[in-house]
């Protein structure tokens, strides 16, 4: 298409769009350098969610005289290195004073990720692991500030849950006693029923700073989330078979066995038919005795309900038949009590 053929209105819209792209300012930060960056503790745990995984929890102090207006996640990120190779990185979670001052961040590897990154727990071969809290490039007026430490406390993998519980409880107590957290009324941990547990604010912060912490140490949470243990059990017919043997060895059982053999049908079918016949006869007798009263039919039906249980107990009616009859009886009662009124 030749430029002169393009309609003037279309050319004008294109020119305005180009000018807007040039003149529209992008999101820019101008965060001052911190007074200091200190990595107070770095603690590593194995087996927090699965055997062979790795969790690193970092307690930092990012001191500012004047707290920046931007969130910490916009300006800093935590990094884990082996030598000069970065293996993991995360943005700290902003909570108190937008994340500045004292706080924590964590890095996590699944067992397969630990294997892929060739991380050795406890650094048995002196791989020079290090953790840093570093400013993002382009956010600061000069070079990005950072602090790095090679001091990592490898917690005993044989006692991970108890150690993690104690360490997080200690961190919660330390943070909530910091002046900046006290000013903002950040109560993180308390005692409930004689045991330390995170408050609502503590649960929000630590569960966000350490994802899945509630699954790792559920006892530290007032509303714990745990994975239920399912036990598979095979269906057994011990009780049902015991009922079927109620008359075993007696003349009653012998008569029904012989009759079932002659008619070539299951014995339980014969006994069930006999039981229902007797139930109906008993119900008819009750109705006859109640004749003239207002509840003759109701009494006869109730007699069948009671006698059905008795015939089941003595092994004449199978439990499956009783369960099926009970199901339909309950449906009937529901219809009687909750059917729409015809008025």
Give a brief description.
The chain is of the alpha+beta class and 343 residues long. It has 12 helices and 10 strands.
Detail the topology: elements first, then pairings:
Elements: H1 8-23, E1 36-46, E2 54-63, H2 72-75, E3 76-82, E4 85-90, E5 101-109, H3 111-117, E6 129-135, E7 146-149, E8 153-154, H4 160-176, H5 179-183, E9 189-192, E10 195-198, H6 200-209, H7 213-216, H8 238-244, H9 251-263, H10 267-289, H11 296-313, H12 319-338
Parallel strand pairs: 1-8
Antiparallel strand pairs: 1-2, 2-5, 3-4, 3-6, 6-7, 9-10
Written account of the structure:
The protein is of the alpha+beta class. It has two domains: 36-220, Immunoglobulins (Immunoglobulin-like), CATH 2.60.40; 239-338, no CATH class. Helix content is 42%, strand content 19%. The chain contains twelve helices and ten strands. A four-stranded mixed beta sheet has the order 5-2-1-8. A hairpin with a 2-residue loop joins β3 and β4. α10 (267-289) runs antiparallel to α11 (296-313). It is elongated, with a radius of gyration of 38 Å. It starts with 7 loop residues before the first helix and ends in a 5-residue tail after the last helix. The relative contact order is 0.08. The model is unreliable at 1-6 and 16-27 (pLDDT under 50).
């Amino acid at each position: 298409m030749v430029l002169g053929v393009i309609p003037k209105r279309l050319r004008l819209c294109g020119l305005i769009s180009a000018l807007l792209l040039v003149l529209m300012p992008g999101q820019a930060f101008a965060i001052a350098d911190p007074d200091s960056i200190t990595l107070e503790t770095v603690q590593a745990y194995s087996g927090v969610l699965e055997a062979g995984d790795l969790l690193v929890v970092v307690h930092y102090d990012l001191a500012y005289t004047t707290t920046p207006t931007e969130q910490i996640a916009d300006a800093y990120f935590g990094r884990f290195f082996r030598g000069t190779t970065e293996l993991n990185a995360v943005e700290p979670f902003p909570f108190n004073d937008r994340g500045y001052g004292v706080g924590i961040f964590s890095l996590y590897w699944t067992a397969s990720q630990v294997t892929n990154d060739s991380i050795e727990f406890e650094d048995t071969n002196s791989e020079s692991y290090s953790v840093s809290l570093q400013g993002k490039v382009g956010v600061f007026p000069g070079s990005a500030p950072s602090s790095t430490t090679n001091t990592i406390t490898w917690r005993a993998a044989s006692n991970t849950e108890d150690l993690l519980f104690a360490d997080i409880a200690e961190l919660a107590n330390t943070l909530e006693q910091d002046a900046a957290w006290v000013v903002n009324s950040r109560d993180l941990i308390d005692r409930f029923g004689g045991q330390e547990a995170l408050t609502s604010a503590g649960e929000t912060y630590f569960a966000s700073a350490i994802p899945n912490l509630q699954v790792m140490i559920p006892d530290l949470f007032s509303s714990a989330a745990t994975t239920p243990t399912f036990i598979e059990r095979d269906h057994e017919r011990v009780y049902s078979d015991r009922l079927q043997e109620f008359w075993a060895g007696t003349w009653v059982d012998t008569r029904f066995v012989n009759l079932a053999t002659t008619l070539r049908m299951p014995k339980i079918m014969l006994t069930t038919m006999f039981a229902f016949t007797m139930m109906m006869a008993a119900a008819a007798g009750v109705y006859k005795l109640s004749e003239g009263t207002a509840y003759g039919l109701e009494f006869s039906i109730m007699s069948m309900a009671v006698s059905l249980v008795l015939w089941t107990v003595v092994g004449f009616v199978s439990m499956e038949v009783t369960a099926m009859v009970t199901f339909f009886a309950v449906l009937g009662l529901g219809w009687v009590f909750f059917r729409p009124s015809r008025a």
